[in-house]
């Protein structure tokens, strides 16, 4: 069997619970397809602060860079609020250390999931979009601090190169999809947004004229995403707007617990994580939906390891389980985190059994 090194970063809150469920799914996939997935676990976030007073130990960075792919649960929680060391610094530092400038957050709303959304079924059914979020620039990584007069500041800056590389990556993905990019900014107010618009427009004209490009302002975009989400294909945007819009679109699919993400750079291993946080309100109670993390593992197999069949098999199993209504409480079901993971494993076995026996 082929050996793959997968670094697991459970982190905080529901992180360890969703990672445990996902690890079991990957082990079953490894058995079926004869891959030797070698898992290692490392500290990040609050767990790192508690154990070694560091939200991002060097050992974790080294192990992630030496892996074939990283799977992360979540970081943060009220326990560490107001302290000098913040769990979130660990995640931001890791994204930067691994050079992960492109964050892909896909959402597809199946007919079965459409009735779970608080929005009308006819608005959300068939939504198929991807938020393409710049991940290592902008206000997240600019200078921040306090002045002597008590005021505070966060600087937002973007270089031309930072905008160019993420735009290229988004246009490339659009070509494999429906060929539409909506670039979202606040060019009526922010200088970084005016540069963003200029650079995206130029990369489009010079390198990807076959793609349809539209620009939108983030405020009205937030509204249109709720009014007519089916109009969108690839939504390209800067770090902070992408963070906010991706939680917004999670409502279209019925729960934030469903959405996966892939963070990719140029060449090295990627980082895969659900878009949700540590969900302190439900942590430690076997209540969290593991689907976002399990679908992130599918993205790790596809984008990180090039294992398309294995990824598709996980996605088919998740779709089957959701269609059968076997869900956690966030989607109105009765399964716990572990049982939801096991339901997906059962579905993987059933799909393989059917394929082996050519049963439809
Ligand atoms: P959150 O995403 O943790 O939770 C928002 C709401 O969604 C909560 O009601 C929660 O119970 C629910 N939810 C989230 N994940 C769920 C799941 N898998 N199944 C069912 N319900 C789920 O956002 P928050 O409460 O604003 O943030 C809590 C902490 O998480 C903060 O410390 C924040 O910094 C951190 N955070 C971390 C990440 C990350 O690690 N990538 C992402 C977002 C927030
Ligand atoms: C996310 C989270 C992170 C972000 C936090 C925890 C730093 O909200 O991954 O969406 O803002 O990027
Ligand atoms: Mn977020």
Automatic annotation (TrEMBL):
How the cofactor is bound: the record states: Binds 1 Mg(2+) or Mn(2+) ion per subunit.
The record's principal subcellular location, in a coarse class, is cytoplasm
* Cross-referenced Pfam families: Iso_dh
Residue sites binding Mg(2+) per the record? 219, 243, 247
Q: In which pathway does it act?
A: Amino-acid biosynthesis; L-leucine biosynthesis; L-leucine from 3-methyl-2-oxobutanoate: step 3/4
Query: Can you state which reaction this protein catalyses?
Result: (2R,3S)-3-isopropylmalate + NAD(+) = 4-methyl-2-oxopentanoate + CO2 + NADH
Q: Which GO terms describe its cellular component?
A: cytosol
Sites where the protein binds NAD(+) = 277-289
Q: Which PROSITE patterns match?
A: IDH_IMDH
What does the record give under GO molecular function?
3-isopropylmalate dehydrogenase activity; magnesium ion binding; NAD binding
Every Isopropylmalate dehydrogenase-like domain range: 5-344
One BP term from GO: L-leucine biosynthetic process
Q: What EC number(s) does its UniProt record assign? A: 1.1.1.85
Q: Which cofactor does it need?
A: Mn(2+); Mg(2+)
Q: Where is this site: Important for catalysis?
A: 140, 186
Annotated residues that bind substrate are located at 95, 105, 133, 219
Q: Which domain of life is it from?
A: Bacteria
Subcellular locations according to the entry? Cytoplasm
Keywords for this entry? Amino-acid biosynthesis, Branched-chain amino acid biosynthesis, Cytoplasm, Leucine biosynthesis, Magnesium, Manganese, Metal-binding, NAD, Oxidoreductase
Which family does the record claim for this protein? Belongs to the isocitrate and isopropylmalate dehydrogenases family. LeuB type 1 subfamily.
Record NCBIfam families: leuB (TIGR00169)
Q: What does this protein do?
A: Catalyzes the oxidation of 3-carboxy-2-hydroxy-4-methylpentanoate (3-isopropylmalate) to 3-carboxy-4-methyl-2-oxopentanoate. The product decarboxylates to 4-methyl-2 oxopentanoate.
Complex formation = Homodimer.
Protein name as annotated: 3-isopropylmalate dehydrogenase
Species the sequence originates in: Brevundimonas goettingensis
- Kindly list the organism's lineage: Bacteria, Pseudomonadati, Pseudomonadota, Alphaproteobacteria, Caulobacterales
């Amino acid at each position: 069997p082929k050996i793959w090194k997968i670094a697991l970063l459970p982190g905080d809150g529901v992180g360890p619970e969703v990672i445990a469920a996902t690890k079991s799914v990957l082990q079953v996939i490894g058995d079926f397809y004869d891959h030797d997935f070698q898992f290692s676990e490392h500290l990040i976030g609050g767990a790192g602060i508690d154990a070694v007073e560091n939200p991002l130990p060097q050992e974790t960075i080294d192990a992630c860079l030496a892996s074939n792919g990283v799977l992360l649960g979540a970081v943060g929680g009220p326990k560490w609020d107001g302290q000098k060391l913040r769990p979130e610094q660990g995640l931001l530092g890791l994204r930067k250390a691994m050079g992960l400038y492109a964050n892909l957050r896909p959402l597809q709303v199946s007919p079965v999931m459409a009735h779970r959304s608080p929005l009308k079924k006819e608005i959300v059914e068939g939504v198929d979009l991807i938020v393409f979020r710049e991940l290592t620039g902008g206000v997240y990584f600019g200078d921040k601090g306090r002045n002597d007069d008590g005021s505070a500041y966060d600087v937002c800056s973007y270089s031309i190169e930072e905008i160019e590389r993420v735009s290229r990556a988004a246009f490339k993905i659009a070509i494999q999809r429906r060929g539409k990019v909506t670039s979202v900014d606040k060019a009526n107010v922010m200088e970084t947004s005016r540069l963003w618009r200029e650079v995206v427009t130029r990369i489009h004209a010079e390198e990807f004229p076959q793609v349809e490009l539209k620009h939108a302002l983030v405020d009205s975009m937030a509204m249109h995403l709720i009014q007519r989400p089916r109009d969108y294909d690839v939504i390209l945007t800067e770090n902070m707007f992408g963070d906010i819009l991706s939680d917004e679109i999670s409502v279209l699919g019925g729960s934030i617990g469903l959405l996966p993400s892939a963070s990719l750079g140029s060449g090295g291993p990627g980082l895969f994580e659900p878009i949700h946080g540590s969900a302190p309100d439900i942590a430690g109670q076997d209540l969290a939906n593991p689907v976002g993390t399990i679908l992130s593992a599918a993205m790790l197999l596809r984008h990180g390891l090039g294992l398309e069949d294995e990824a598709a098999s996980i996605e088919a199993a998740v779709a089957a389980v959701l269609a059968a209504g076997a869900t956690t409480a966030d989607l109105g079901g009765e399964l716990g985190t572990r049982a939801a993971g096991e339901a997906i494993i059962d579905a993987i076995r059933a799909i393989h059994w059917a394929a082996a026996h050519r049963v439809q």
